[in-house]
Amino acid sequence: MGSVEGGEKKALGWAARDPSGVLSPYSYTLRSTGADDVYIKVICCGICHTDIHQIKNDLGMSNYPMVPGHEVVGEVVEVGSDVSKFTVGDVVGVGVIVGCCGSCKPCSADLEQYCNKRIWSYNDVYTDGKPTQGGFADTMIVNQKFVVKIPEGMPVEQAAPLLCAGVTVYSPLSHFGLMTSGLKGGILGLGGVGHMGVKIAKAMGHHVTVISSSEKKREEAMEHLGADDYVVSSDQAEMQRIADSLDYIIDTVPVFHPLEPYLASLKLDGKLILMGVINTPLQFLTPLLILGRKVISGSFIGSIKETEEVLAFCKEKGLTSTIEVVKVDELNTAFERLHKNDVRYRFVVDVAGSKFVEETTTTTPN
């Protein structure tokens, strides 16, 4: 085993420099490493809608330069002296979180994604004071606690979306006891998370209704993803048809939308599970909740344990993501297309197969 302790390492990535969100080559040093760290050569990385919010400072919390990317798959090239979970040559994944306090109630319950001191895989500051940078780069250094093994035989480009989109759907279904067969579920929004929602729910034996804003994804949802029903949300007759019928709705829509039509679709004790990052207030009439004992809940990605579970589940069921592979120098075009919902259904960046170049000017981090 090679040791990664002590020395800093150079990395090449693609970074946003300002709220325009335009990415360009960026050279930087990785944070200092320790005995529990894993040095990873990145193979590929999925593109998530949240990456758009971050690079464009939609949430008002962005720091630049920023290398995004939190659906990272790579190969272990070195490990620290105390690393026990991984060896050189392992194919591994890194998701949204790379640090936590380790002592709070969520951390003690293996729910580190809800730790108030969680450290994001990019656009954050690590414990040593250095900025974290994500997976649109040639290498990363991550504490072994936040690294997962990719199941043997699973294609790396298929594994990447499971590290965010896949576990984001799996976690609430597991938490709320919605994994038994025979349930009726709704998937609101058929993007990167939504398409995985359809596949995972179907693999659990659920009757799945896709609720979308237009007819354009009907054939895709029904014939290719295996949905049982498809409803256009603006069609009042169709929405009435599914009233009081669903055990849950996974709401993946990342922009403002009314909640009443979907609450009306839930049966007694039904759950509307919000996943979209929306920076404007949502609203609803309380009788829609009160008269059906319905629940509006949020759910945020999943734990490391749940990430391992969803990888094993998808391997066992033979589930794959529907993806489009791009090179690093196509990132800006991919982000433009993702902003227009012009992707089926997840971009995955072929990092290892891309050519990285040194930046032409030196940039001082904010």
Mean pLDDT: 94
Largest sheet: 7 strands, mixed
Element pattern in H and E: EEEHEEEHEEEHHEHEHEHEHEHEHEHE
Q: What's the end-to-end separation, in Å? A: 36 Å
Radius of gyration: 21 Å
Task: Let me know the number of strands.
Answer: 17
Shape: globular
Helix content: 10-25%
Low-confidence stretches: none
Strand content: 25-35%
Helix-and-strand structural type: alpha/beta
Query: Treating each run of at least 4 consecutive H or I residues as one helix, how many helices?
Result: 11
Domain Enoyl reductase (ER): 21-349
Keywords: Metal-binding, Oxidoreductase, Zinc
Protein name: Enoyl reductase (ER) domain-containing protein
GO molecular function, one term: zinc ion binding
